[in-house]
Amino acid sequence: QVQLVESGGGLVQAGGSLRLSCVASGSTFSMHAMGWFRQAPGKERQFVAAISRSGINTYYADSVKGRFTISRDNAKNTVYLQMNSLKPEDTAVYYCAARVASLRGTVYTTANDYAYWGQGTQVTVSS
How far does CA 54 lie from the centroid of its chain? Predict the structure, then answer.
């Protein structure tokens, strides 16, 4: 079992930045691939970014490519999402997700790939 706790959300003006953090506990963090997803009101959960368990590989949704950066610190059991140049359409609840990964370099990009989820953190971008 993995427990995930997100933090770092808030209200920011368009063009601003936020850094989300997700701390994992309960299992060996370095054995888990990680992902960030988001869900806006009335919309389905959407993939944002993913990182392999080793941190070697990352993958981004086209809508955030070049603006968001996913990273991880296995010593701190933490994955981060640095969000720059935020837009009002980035407004959503952001969720951290984890799954055991047998290969060091594999990334996972669909919600069904992940077994563990955090409670989410709200990000609101005002225009």
Answer: 16
